[in-house]
Design a protein that fits this description.
Layout (H helix, E strand, L loop, with lengths): L3 E7 L6 E8 L6 H4 L1 H4 L3 E7 L10 H11 L4 E7 L8 H13 L7 E6 L1 H13 L5 E6 L2 H7 L4 E6 L2 E8 L4 E5 L8 H18 L1 H15 L3 H21 L14 H10 L8 H18 L5 H13 L16 H8 L12 E6 L2 E5 L4 H13 L1
Parallel strand pairs: 2-9, 3-4, 3-5, 5-6
Antiparallel strand pairs: 1-2, 7-8, 10-11
Helix pairs in contact: 6-7, 6-9, 7-8, 7-9, 7-11, 8-9, 10-11, 11-12, 13-14
C-alpha cells in the first residue's frame, strides 16, 4: 500500500516551519532510510515503551525499527519507560533527563519517541528542555497516538492537580505512523484510539462522521485501507486547525471536545488503568453532547446518534459503568477549575450545536453544570 505523506506548516511564525507526517505500511523496517537525513552523524536516543524490547521474538516491529536506525546513525541509545499515564510524573521525567545527559549528548543529538501517547508526551517534553531544547521525532505505535497526540507539538506530564498541566509546545521533525503495528497491540488500546477519530467528525466534518458510521465494521477488523483513511483524515483535520493556532490561543481548543470531562474522570481513576484516556474521552464527548442537549443547544437526536456510534465502536458512553472511580458531581466541579482552557476564573467547555459543529462555550454557568452532573453522575 502506497504511504500517505501529509505536510503541516506553521506559516504565521517569523520563520516558516513545517514537517511531514508519513502514514502507511512497512514503514518501521525502513525507518533508518526514511530518517537518514535527520539521524546520520548524530547521537540518537530512542525513548520507548517497555512493552517493546530488542528481542526479535518479543516484538518484530521494534526489533526491525531499531536495527534500521542503528544502520544509519552514529550512536544509538535506548531508554525504556513504563506505559500508562502514571509514568507522566516529575520523578520519571527527571530520571529520563538524567539518563539522556549521561550519554554525553549535545545540541545536535536527537530523540525518537517510540510508543503511544504517554511516551510521545514525556519524550517530547524531555527533548524540549534538555540542553534548552533538542530535536525529536515521533513514531506513534497506538491508534490514539497516530491520529492525535503525535501531531501538533503538545508535550508534557501530569501534576498532582491534574493531567498535562506541565509541558511545552515542541514540534517534531517528522512523524512516522506504521499501520501494521496496530494489530500487535491490545484491542482495548485500539478501541480507545477510535474515540479521538470520531471526535474529528464531530468537530467540523459531518461527512467523515457519516463515513465512520458506514465503515464501522471494516475498521474494527483492521482493514488496512480503512485504517489508512481514518489516520490520514484525522491528521488532516488536526493539522489544519493546529497550523492556524499552534499555541491554542483560539480555535485549537475545539480539539478538546469532551476532554474537560475526560481529564476529570481520569483524575479519579488515579491513572492506574481502570480507565484509559480514549475511554475517558469517549465518555467525555458523550457528556459534552448530553450537556449541549441539556442547555438546548443541540437536538437530542444528534446526541443519541453520537452515543450509538461510540457503542458500535465498543467504547463506553457513561461513567456509570466505572463505579470504582467513585465520582461525584462536587468533586468533578473542583477538577474543572484546573482545566487549561479556563480564562479569568471562568469555566470553558467545547460543546456542539449539531454533529460537525463544535464551538467554544466560555463562562459556562456553574449552576447549570452542577444540575447536569447531578443528573448524570449521582442519579
Amino acid at each position: 500500500m502506497k504511504p500517505t505523506t501529509l505536510n503541516i506548516s506553521f506559516s504565521k511564525d517569523i520563520n516558516k516551519r513545517s514537517y511531514d507526517i508519513q502514514i502507511g505500511t512497512n514503514l518501521l523496517a525502513n525507518a533508518g532510510l526514511i530518517l537518514r537525513k535527520f539521524i546520520e552523524n548524530r547521537k540518537v536516543i530512542v525513548i520507548h515503551d517497555n512493552y517493546f524490547s530488542l528481542n526479535e521474538n518479543d516484538n518484530e516491529y521494534f526489533y526491525k525499527f531499531a536495527k534500521s536506525i542503528e544502520a544509519n546513525c552514529k550512536n544509538i541509545f535506548f531508554i525504556s519507560v513504563r506505559g500508562g499515564d502514571k509514568t507522566k510524573n516529575i520523578i520519571e521525567f527527571n530520571e529520563i533527563i538524567e539518563k539522556m545527559l549521561s550519554f554525553e549528548i549535545d545540541r545536535e543529538s536527537l530523540v525518537i519517541a517510540f510508543g503511544g501517547g504517554v511516551v510521545g508526551d514525556i519524550a517530547g517534553f524531555a527533548s524540549s528542555v534538555v540542553l534548552r531544547g533538542i530535536n525529536f521525532i515521533q513514531v506513534p505505535t497506538t491508534l490514539l497516538s497516530q491520529v492525535d497526540s503525535s501531531v501538533g507539538g503538545k508535550t508534557g506530564i501530569n501534576s498532582k492537580m491534574g493531567k498535562n498541566l506541565i509541558g511545552a509546545f515542541h514540534q517534531p521533525l517528522v512523524v512516522i505512523s506504521d499501520i501494521n503495528i496496530l494489530e500487535s497491540l491490545p484491542k482495548r488500546e485500539f478501541y480507545a484510539g477510535l474515540a479521538e477519530v470520531i471526535k474529528y467528525g464531530l468537530i467540523n466534518d459531518i461527512d467523515f462522521f457519516e463515513w465512520l458510521e458506514k465503515e464501522c465494521e471494516q475498521i474494527l477488523i483492521y482493514n488496512p485501507s480503512k485504517l489508512q483513511t481514518i489516520i490520514t483524515k484525522s491528521c488532516e483535520i488536526k493539522a489544519e486547525i493546529v497550523k492556524n493556532d499552534e499555541k491554542e490561543i483560539g480555535q485549537r481548543a475545539l480539539l478538546n471536545l469532551g476532554h474537560t470531562f475526560a481529564h476529570a474522570i481520569e483524575y479519579f481513576g488515579n491513572y492506574d488503568g481502570r480507565i484509559i484516556h480514549g475511554e475517558a474521552v469517549s465518555i467525555g464527548i458523550c457528556l459534552a453532547f448530553k450537556f449541549s442537549s441539556f442547555l438546548g443547544l443541540c437536538d437530542d437526536t444528534d446526541t443519541k446518534r453520537v452515543i450509538t456510534l461510540f457503542n458500535r465502536f465498543k467504547l463506553p458512553t457513561s461513567v456509570k459503568g466505572f463505579k470504582k472511580l467513585h465520582l461525584s458531581s462536587t468533586e468533578m466541579m473542583e477538577r474543572f477549575k484546573f482545566d487549561k482552557k479556563n480564562k479569568r476564573n471562568q469555566l470553558t467547555f467545547i460543546l456542539n450545536n449539531s454533529i460537525g459543529k463544535s464551538f467554544i462555550h466560555n463562562n459556562v454557568d456553574v449552576e447549570n453544570l452542577t444540575q447536569f452532573l447531578d443528573k448524570e453522575i449521582n442519579a
